[in-house]
Amino acid sequence: MVPGPLMLDLETTALTADEQDLLRHPQVGGVIFFSRNFRCREQIIELTAAIAQLRPDILLAVDQEGGRVQRLRDGFTRLPAMQVLGDFFARDPVKGSPLIVDVGWLMASELIASGIDFSFAPVLDVDRAYCEVIGDRSFGDDPERIVNVAELFINGMREAGMAATGKHFPGHGGVRGDSHLETPCDDRSLEQLRARDLIPFAKLAPSLGGVMPAHMIFPQVDSRAVGFSPLWLQQILRGELDFNGVVFSDDLSMKGADVAGGYAAKTAAALAAGCDMVLVCNNRGGALEVLDYLEKNPVQGSTRLASMKARAQYSWDVLADHPRRLATVEQLRHLV
Hints:
Elements: E1 6-8, H1 17-24, E2 28-33, H2 41-54, E3 59-62, E4 64-66, E5 69-70, H3 82-91, H4 93-113, E6 118-119, H5 143-160, E7 165-169, H6 190-194, H7 198-204, E8 210-213, H8 230-240, E9 246-251, H9 263-273, E10 277-280, H10 284-296, H11 316-319, H12 323-335
Parallel strand pairs: 1-2, 1-10, 2-3, 3-6, 7-8, 8-9, 9-10
Antiparallel strand pairs: 4-5
Helix pairs in contact: 3-4, 4-5, 4-12, 5-7
């Protein structure tokens, strides 16, 4: 069964009866977890198992970037912000390179052992402290270094059996505004973006399983926000960059997405532009509006989505004392 195009969230730490019905809907293809869905490691394992029993094909995801964006904490390794890793690599690439691979493996293996297919990571935005919502989530403000460090992190994820998702295409680091609260505009030309922000996406496209576009407008390129733009997603991302993986919309509940209209209009625009899956988070009414739209205008799920399923299985009984995990955790203690 091919997963449907909607990824939604859950209210609490266990499935409600209404959520069980929702997850059986063929147009639902994914669940994203937030901190409110997590009490402890044993609980999240029970929750992911319950979802898998209902829908073994459904994709289970989380934002487990590290630093200030890490939804699962107690019982999981506290990961540093990616800028910490980027700075360590800059100081000592000989020691930094294997550690970054190991951190990618560690993040991915802990999630997979908990029944989660992937994290929406890594952040490929070029930034250090300019954009309030990106900042230290980025590996840094040197695009070539980002390529080097992110490739190591992605290699570790791949070793664990997890596909990587690069965000926020074509780069959120050039604006101060937060797309959760507004629709930022970046007045740079496509040539300027190719020379800086697009470099990580262009060079890492073959290594990425997924890409998430930003809810931003680049008026010199297209009047439409990136996630609703065939020019950005089909002509540039798939055509120019030759990206063949999954395109996930960013959350359609964010204010940055409101330029496309209501939830039905946003969904129609995102899918028409080239998104394979749309996310609706923290707004159950919005998710139900999207489902109503998809019932009236059913969409055949993208066959690309299956590539985001975890390609390995781990048990916490083994992983908890795994030598590679213990060694990486110890190195991180000294790093931060």
